[in-house]
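PROTOCOL LOG
Step 1. Enter all chains and additional molecules of the complex.
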Amino acid sequence: NAGVMQNPRHLVRRRGQEARLRCSPMKGHSHVYWYRQLPEEGLKFMVYLQKENIIDESGMPKERFSAEFPKEGPSILRIQQVVRGDSAAYFCASSRDPMGEQFFGPGTRLTVL
Amino acid sequence: ILNVEQSPQSLHVQEGDSTNFTCSFPSSNFYALHWYRWETAKSPEALFVMTLNGDEKKKGRISATLNTKEGYSYLYIKGSQPEDSATYLCALQTGANNLFFGTGTRLTVIP
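Step 2. Run joint prediction.
Step 3. Record the structure below.
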């Protein structure tokens, strides 16, 4: 049973470009969470999605960031017009149940030049 | 946003020593307290989930206790080994499903 998969593992973008980060949850998990780790900081919650629905996006910046979890395919975190301050490690986690244990992926390290 | 604090920030111990570190959190709106072990370049790995005041969990040489009334949890490692070197994260889960993480304790076990 494969764990949570994220790709790419490393992503380099220039300022103003778009970044797309993908997360495939564990088999049987329909709940996905995105977290961000800025340099020298801890993991911070961004958004919680269940298939086709955003449940809680209280941690996500209001502008340029969006997330989706379609019926088929991985969850996508999209950052438009990236800026240097978006450089961080972005982690995805999944759970089977709404309040269940969260299993983490290996993260995507985004570098904005 | 809830403030979850971990101490110490980093720790060096000799192989064979036992050690412990602390996670402090606001005790209101408590649902569960999670401990994760995070090795460099890998995914955070769940160690324990604790929900009840007085809970004690154990996995091999690692154990954890929980005090929800005073808002703290301790993680203990008995007879540390070099493979225990990692960052140990605690996270508070409130009524919502998101986790509020501390910044972690970075443990280095010296052979």
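Step 4. Note key features.
The longest strand of chain A covers residues 43-50.
The mean pLDDT of chain A is 93.
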